[in-house]
Amino acid sequence: MDLFRVLACAAMPSHLTPLHLAAAEAVAAHAGVPAADLKVDTPPRPEMGDLAVGCFAIAKARGANPAQVAKEIAAAFQPTELLASATAAGPFVNFRANRAAAFKWLIGAALGGSLLPRSLGAGKTITIDYGSPNISKHLGYHHIRGTTIGHALAQSFRALGYKVVAINFLGDWGTTHGMVLAAYERWGGGAEPTVDLLNQLYVRFRAEVKEPEDEGRAWLKRLEDGEPEATELWKRFRAVSWKEFEEVYKILGIDYDDLNGEAFFVKGGNAAIEQLRTTGLLVESEGAQVVELEGEKTPILLLTKDGTTLYATRDVAAAIYREETYHPTRSLYVVDRGQSLHFRQLFKLLGKMGYDWANKCQHIPYGLVKVGGKKFGNRAGNVVLMRDVFKIAEDAVGEVIAQVNPNLPADVRDHVVRQVGIGAIIFGNLAPQRDKDIDFDFDKAVSLDGDSGPYVQYSHARCASIVRKANEGVSTNVDYTKLSHDAEWAVAKRLSDFPDIVVRATDNCEPHVICHYLLELAGEFSRWYTAGNSDATLRVLVDDAEVRRARLALVGAVQATLREGLSLLGMAAPAQM
Known about the structure:
Blueprint: H1 3-7, H2 18-31, E1 40-41, E2 51-54, H3 56-62, H4 66-76, E3 83-89, E4 92-97, H5 99-112, E5 125-129, H6 144-159, E6 163-167, H7 175-187, H8 195-208, H9 212-224, H10 228-252, H11 266-278, E7 283-285, E8 288-291, E9 300-303, H12 311-326, E10 330-334, H13 340-352, E11 361-364, E12 369-371, E13 374-375, H14 386-404, H15 410-430, E14 438-440, H16 442-445, H17 453-470, H18 486-496, H19 498-507, H20 512-531, H21 545-568
Parallel strand pairs: 5-6, 5-10, 10-11, 12-14
Antiparallel strand pairs: 1-2, 2-4, 3-4, 7-8, 8-9, 12-13
């Protein structure tokens, strides 16, 4: 069986490498079972082999002992282009790879950009609602997790061939904005609106007005009735807010495809209300209009007693719009876990309205981010601005890089400091498991040692430095048998994990697995590279031209994979640090 037949095996998951496919096919060919039914694992110890396929299902179907089945399959194995040998280890068939052939495929794929399954998502659309700040308020650091998680998911899905619609569902409607309008009329004095001014007025309004909610709803009613004065002010507040938001999104490299905020869905929300009223689902409760949902202690509130719409009303309209406009395979809502009840009720309501696509909607909750043990927000006026945190991180990174590479040219240093400072913030928020609260540690985040973004970026820069010093470029036309050390093979095996890691990250909406993979790849590379410190024959840039070219190819593959992995997270890959 040759490599091309392995690649053409349509029944197998398309994210598995040819090496993994070869192992599954080798067992399937002698067991009379579909290769797709077999799981390919890594043996617990390297000396046991490179790949392992369990024989439990095969043995159960035969009514035989799994260990005996493994022995029979291993004994019947004949070497293939990618697999050199097979042995039985209890109920498993363990394979050793033909390392030269495996190196050739892995390095070629990494350097050629084909290590990831680029067509996995062909013909499929993913909508991702993330970021979504409230206008008239600053883009605070507490927005960072949802923004970075959503962007990392968007990048990862795109890399697998999905069409991604990145949505910023701006919070630009509702009682809160009515309060800002009321506060501006009371104390604004006609001053040019700025986010600073609007946020100060909002905080003062909540502190000094006896019934702020009532007055806010009254102004919202004026907005919903289309009153010119209220509408014109609202437009000005929205424009000045978006200008500030956009500056931060540019720093993060984020471009949104859909900027339809809540205001865009007011009419659709009213239409949804009429639909619910017509079908008899909408009922009155204490003067408000609600829908009772099975399994919920409280109903979902859709219309206040004074007739104004609510967040849920507009979310129903937005969900319908996204389905009718984009026809997504999955519709993701990256919003903090404090909104779990809201989304559970929203999806139940959509199902009750007869929309069978409601099961494609998925809340992607995440934990809170704190700085120094404190939770920050806009309501109390104690917001920490996202852009201020970026500046603090850049200053800290600047000090680190000045110590590590004091001879870095000033123009290069300034560019790198910004890339690494922003990267430190992004990685520090993505690396923890998504549903966990995090207490952000600046010192750890900006360190070049340990589990940090700068460490991964430094590993990429080290690869680039090696290639520059070689002064001969990276070629795939090399003798791969020259890669014979176990440390080199350990790097290759880690490279082979990349497709599965990215597919799992998207399937489960967990970017942290990419972070940890990049740390592991950087660690394997470091162990191989530093082995040359004690044994000159293991250095990358040895005198033997064939060995040097082969090792440079492996360095290039690591560099390309680190670069792509960082890109999936929304991070830059500096060539110097």
